[in-house]
Write a structure and sequence with these properties.
Number of domains: 2
CATH superfamily of the largest domain: HUPs
Strand order of the largest sheet: 1-2-3
Number of helices: 14
Number of strands: 5
Radius of gyration: 22 Å
Helix content: 55-70%
Largest sheet: 3 strands, parallel
Bound molecules: adenosine-5'-diphosphate, tryptophan
Shape: elongated
CATH class of the largest domain: Alpha Beta
Distance between the termini: 27 Å
CATH architecture of the largest domain: 3-Layer(aba) Sandwich
Order of helices and strands: EHEHHEHHHHHEHEHHHHH
CATH topology of the largest domain: Rossmann fold
Strand content: 5-15%
């Protein structure tokens, strides 16, 4: 079975965009592939979070993944820092990674611009650590968004270079896996094209009913259609896109007809949308709370994940050391 590895930086809670754009597909993929999901806590050090922040984030992501339906028996969930083999591979890969190519990575340049006081070496070598995450399991496929394409190219470059330098056919080039049909780009309710943490317009899976309602009622709308069957401007289209994801077809069709007949009342539509988002999130939210309060279970999941990940990583490192010329 093909190996799939997916990493997520622990930067907060999951929102509807993360769910429909990625996590929902992960739940399906765990049936079809040999999946592993990990929390990239070492990567998060590039922005210097506090210890409390790091501890909390790993637990949060783990509870949310579980609540969304990732089954740790099928697809281990582990914390990157539990698998020290990754560090050793990171070191080896760094010896064959060149300053010039690392400096040219767009996300590095962007970070260097946005945090000029903290252009640390970890930031520069972010792509080698990411390559180590992937190559340590000799993964075939990596589900990533477009923004990670350059990091994926670097991972393939490092894999090829390792093979060339040591004259082996050891690492295969990991392929990016783009969710095709099933994944949806979730827009923002503020009229913007994307729901995101940094966009500040996200509805989180753990938001309570009142918060969801407040966010939806604030959604940007316009004065209403002035022609029959008028094309929807972006903010309105966004409302409908989200409604299509969380509401049943009848509800969607009803408001769509209302819009086309110029009879739409956005207030009513928002109330319905808020109720449907809440109905969608409520069971997930409850499970998040349950997992969050079950430290023993979370620990067990993390330990189980770490064990499976270490097993796969240790095998690779043993071979890599031999190839490089160290005692295995
Ligand atoms: P954010 O943009 O909120 O910081 P992340 O970068 O943490 O989100 O997103 C992790 C993954 O979740 C992305 O690689 C992408 O697959 C998915 N994702 C995030 N936002 C959206 C969205 N609005 N629509 C679809 N998928 C999304
Ligand atoms: N760089 C990825 C992101 O920002 C997170 C990540 C780290 C990752 N290591 C990885 C993703 C390995 C896939 C595989 O989203």
């Amino acid at each position: 079975m093909e190996k799939v590895i997916s990493g997520i930086r622990p930067t907060g809670n999951l929102h509807l965009g993360n769910y429909f754009g990625a996590v929902k597909s992960f739940v399906k993929m765990q049936e079809e592939y040999n999946c592993m999901f990990f929390i990239a806590d070492w990567h998060s050090l590039t922005t210097h979070p506090t210890p409390e922040n790091i501890r909390r984030s790993a637990r949060t992501i783990m509870s949310e993944y579980l609540a969304c339906g990732i089954d740790p028996e099928k697809a281990p969930i582990y914390v990157q820092s539990d698998v020290k083999e990754v560090l050793e591979l990171y070191l080896y890969l760094n010896m064959n990674a060149y300053l010039g190519e690392l400096e040219r990575v767009t996300s590095f340049k962007e970070k260097a611009r946005t945090q000029p006081d903290n252009v640390n070496a970890g930031l520069l070598t972010y792509p080698t650590l990411m390559a180590a995450d992937i190559l340590v399991h000799k993964a075939d496929k990596v589900p990533v968004g477009k923004d990670q394409e350059q990091n994926m190219e670097m991972a393939r470059l490092f894999a090829r270079r390792f093979n060339r330098i040591y004259g082996v056919e050891y690492f295969k080039e990991p392929q990016s896996y783009h969710f095709t049909k099933e994944a949806v780009k979730v827009p923002g309710l503020d009229g913007s094209g994307k729901m995101g943490k940094s966009e500040g317009n996200a509805i989180y899976l753990c938001d309570d009913e009142a918060t969801i309602k407040k966010k939806v009622m604030r959604a940007v709308t316009d004065a209403g259609p002035t022609m029959l069957n008028q094309e929807k401007p972006e903010p309105i289209r966004n409302l409908f896109t989200i409604m299509e994801l969380v509401s049943d077809k009848q509800t969607y069709d009803y408001f769509n007809d209302q819009y086309n007949n110029m009879a739409i009342r956005y207030g009513d539509m928002k109330k319905q949308l808020a109720a449907d988002i809440n109905a969608f999130c409520a069971p997930i939210r409850e499970r998040i709370w349950q997992y969050q309060s079950d430290d023993a279970y979370l620990l067990q999941v993390a330990q189980m994940g770490a064990e499976r990940a270490r097993e796969s990583a240790a095998k690779t490192l043993k071979e890599v050391r031999e190839i490089i010329g160290f005692r295995a």
